[in-house]
Amino acid sequence: MKKFKSFFGKIRNKNIVFIIGFLLCLGVIFLIAFGINGSKIEVVQPDEASRTTSRTTVEWNTTGPEQYEIDLDSIAFKTTAKAPKTSKLNKKSKTSSTKKSKATSKKTNKAKKTTQKSASKKTNKAKKTTQKSASKKTNKAKKTTVTTAKKIKKSTRKKAVTTTSKKIKTTQATTKKKTTTTKKKTSTTKKKTSTTTAKKKKTATTTKATKIKAIKAVTAKKSDGYKTRDISKETYTIKNVITGKKLKSNGFDILCQIVNGEMDSSWNEEALKAQAVAAYTYLRYCRVNGITPELGAKSGYNSKIEKAVKSVQGLVCTYNGSVISAVFCASTAGCTADCANVWEGNYPYLKSVYSKYDEAYDPNYGITKTMSKKDVKKILKKQGVTLSTKKKNWIKAISHFNGKYVGYVSIDGKLTLTGDKVRSLFGLRSSAFTVSYSDGYFTFTTYGYGHGVGMSQWGAQFYASKGGYKFDQILKRYYSGIKISL
């Protein structure tokens, strides 16, 4: 492309020079033609033969179509004779003519050069102006193209945004429609499932009712206002503390065995009922919490126990709607022990309460046990203690709770144990005890039988036989804030 441009530029320069030369020639001819007065021209011509000059007058024929043709017949030569000159003059004239011709040629050359220079300058200026204008135009075109491109991009972006927003709206609308349809489907399925479950429940209840009627275990109101239910279809497993073996049986049979093992069959019927409800509540609590209950059980129960259990079967003790841990013991030290002081956990229904008849009538109240210093020393050495010679300091109670119950015991000032731990180490009936040393023997005096938490079995017997309490009154006496229901 650059070669083509340079070629066309050269041609353009030559054309300009030619045009300028042509215009100059036309100007010279015009001056010759119209610069003379009239239609006559005098021409002076030298005559080399005669060494004279002659003047001729030329008349233009201005008539006819060829009005600027020269009429040769009208040309008249006037000769003026001059004196002949020497050859030197001829030579001088020749040299002067040659000089004149050279000068004219120089002048023409100079004129040509000046015209060429002026023409080249003009062409260069024209080129520069054209280039500047072209560059300006190209820059403007570039700017316009950039702006148009930006506008196009903005418009395309706007279009893209609008299209995407439209798509999003459409997708949202479709998703909403789908969700509404799915919700409708789920609602219909829920309705169907609810109807099916209701039908199943109805059928289940009808079948249960028929079974209950078949086994003659329809709930009936008792004289004390409580309803009962048959528990013979339930099965329970316990660890029998009397035999040391596991016992598995139906609810009614195992509950009769527990009442027969924990109480004497000759006791008051209300005490037996209270024991049946407490034992059944404890069975239910252990089942919920995955515990195997440890209870005393004896087979061969009599009709009295069977009657007492049947009259309260299915009843449980609850606190705030939950089945309680209805623990019990043989007797107390005049008041029950707070659960928080004996075991871990603080149950609001297992607080310390006054047991009115234990101190006066309980056969386990004030029982003594004597042990030699050798036997005591053996037991304490197993705890890793080297005892001193002061025997009175070997076992000393340092704290109590809920009356006579021992909290902590100091072993010769070197070890501290709980009262319940000392009870188990020395086989005492209760953690409510006193200890003394005399003549090589330690004497332990205990008050009550068992851990002392919950219902006192001897206390229930005396509340029923001496106080005239019903089974529910006995239970509410020992378990604070409970309710009794199915």
What does the model show?
This protein is α+β, with helices and mostly antiparallel strands. Among the domains are: about 235-355 and about 465-475, no CATH class; about 365-445, no CATH class. Helices cover about 50% and strands about 20% of the residues. It contains eleven helices and 18 strands. The protein has helices at about 1-35, 85-215, 250-260, 270-290, 305-310, 340, 360, 375-380, 420-425, 455-465, 470-480; strands spanning about 40-45, 50-60, 70, 75-80, 235-240, 245-250, 295, 315-320, 320-325, 330, 365-370, 395-400, 405-410, 415-420, 435-440, 440-445, 455, 485. The strands form six sheets. Strands 1, 2, 3 and 4 form a four-stranded antiparallel beta sheet that branches. A three-stranded mixed beta sheet has the order 6-5-7, with helices on one face. Strand 12 and strand 13 form a beta hairpin. Helix 3 crosses helix 4 (about 270-290), helix 3 packs across helix 5 and helix 4 (about 270-290) crosses helix 11 (about 470-480). It is elongated. The two termini are about 110 Å apart. Residues about 35-45, about 50-55, about 55-95 and about 205-220 have low confidence and may be disordered.
Got a strand count? 18
Report the sheet with the most strands, covering strand number, pairing sense and barrel closure.
4 strands, antiparallel
| Strand-pairing-aware structural class | alpha+beta
Low-confidence stretches: 36-44, 48-54, 56-94, 207-221
For the termini, the CA-CA separation is 110 Å
Oligomer: single chain
**Residue-averaged pLDDT, rounded?**
77
How much is the radius of gyration in Å? 72 Å
H/I helix tally: 11
Query: Which percent range fits the helix content?
Result: 40-55%
